[in-house]
Each structure stands twice: as C-alpha cells, then as structure tokens.
Amino acid sequence: MLTLGNGVCGMASIAVAVSVNLPWENDQKLFIAGVLIFIGMVFDALDGSAARMTNQSSQFGAELDSLCDAITFGAAPAVILWRYSDVFPHRLSWAIGVVFTLCVLMRLARFNVETEEDDPHDGFEGLPSPAAAGTIAAFVISIPHLHSLATPDYGDRIQSLALNGLVAFQYVVPLTALALAYLMVSRFRYPHVVQQWLRGRKAPHQIGQALFAIGGVFLFNELALPLALCFYAFSVPLRYLAERIGLMRPAAPKPVVGGETESSPSDG
Prior knowledge:
This protein is mainly alpha-helical. The chain is 72% helix and 4% strand. It has one domain: CDP-alcohol phosphotransferase transmembrane (TM) domain (Four Helix Bundle (Hemerythrin (Met), subunit A), Up-down Bundle), CATH 1.20.120.1760.
C-alpha cells in the first residue's frame, strides 16, 4: 500500500500540474504538484524501511516500487518542467524533460540489476532519483515565497532580489534538471543521509550539516529546500573535481572488510 501511495502521489502531481479546471494560478498548481512529489518521497522511504524491518521484501514489491518511482520521480518532474519554464523554445523544454525522465528510468533499471538483497543501505551509486525529483520540486515549492518577497513591504533591495530570482529560476531549473539527469546515471558515490543518522554515533561534519540545514530553514524558509537539495546533489561532484585539481585532499578509503574495500549500494 505504501508503494502504491507513492504512485498515486506521482499521478496526482501530474494531474494538478496540467489541470485547466482547478481554480488556482499556475504557480499555485506547481506548488501543490511539488508538494505531492515530496509526499511520494515519504511513501517511498517508508515502503523500503517497512519491507526491511518486517523482512517481507519480494521481487514483485521491488518491481512495483520502481514502476511507481518512474511515475513520481521521472514523469511528474518532467511535466512540472514543461509547465513551469517558458524561456526556452518549446521543443528544447520538451527535450530536457524527456532526458530527465529517461535518466530516471536508466537509474532505476541499473538499481534493479546491480542491487543484491543483502546489500547494506548506507549509500548510493549515482544521485538517487528521489533526490533529483525533489530538487526540481523544491524550486517550484519556493516560488510562492519568492512572490511574497517581491513586494515593497520588504524594501527595495529584497524586492529586487526576489524579482531577479523569479526570472533566474526560469533558466536555472531546466539547466539544473539536465545536470541532475547526468548525476543520476553517473558513478559518483552519494551518502544515504537518513541511514547515517539512524545508525551509530554522528561525525562532527554530520552535526555541522544538520545545524546548517536547521539554520537555513529559519533564515530562508522555503528557499532552504532547493539550497539543501542542490548542496546534496552537487557537493559530491564538486568535491571530486576539487580533489582532481589539488584543492582538496582525497577522502580516506573505507575500512577493509573480508579482504575487500567495503562498497556502497546503489538505490533508486
């Protein structure tokens, strides 16, 4: 049921985004469509945790989960992209949405093929599709807040920044979607944030990241969502680039278990 709840959220997100009968402005419809993607993420997380806790995972459940993920984290964000940004030619916007969806499908297919039943769930190979979809959803969720700041009530400087932000988002969101599409099918290693917090003692940098996230929520409100998710998505490749050009020292290798370096699994 949790898995199907994820799929229902994806279908509802698409329906809201394309509806012409709902009595809301386009930004309000996209806000709700984005929220539905986040609710789908909750169902997806609870579904996996419940299956592992009850030891009731099955091939049927895994395949159904991937199909629902394809709707909520592949098709729904693509529809949001098409409905939101109109600064690029229509065919280019359509192509960006198609590329994003295809990369989600390849990401999910690779996960199904490469993941073993007894894999630890402490990391991902490639950006997880929920994180990629959540990043797109986070941008449209923050748009009403930007509109509220784009008024004289907050002063000329804040109003100007908000208006410029609304224009910039029209370009940033589609281009970010292309980058996210690549990261999903890449081999970059991403940490499983939830599992790291649920297991064992917390490293100082994890506590620092949590405090940074909490501070961002209080300071930026809804704008903290795209900031946090972009940090998660792009910090890994940026760190890799910094290590390659000598700006950062390479991370220490993971502990050796049974003669082989401990590896992280991929995930959808």
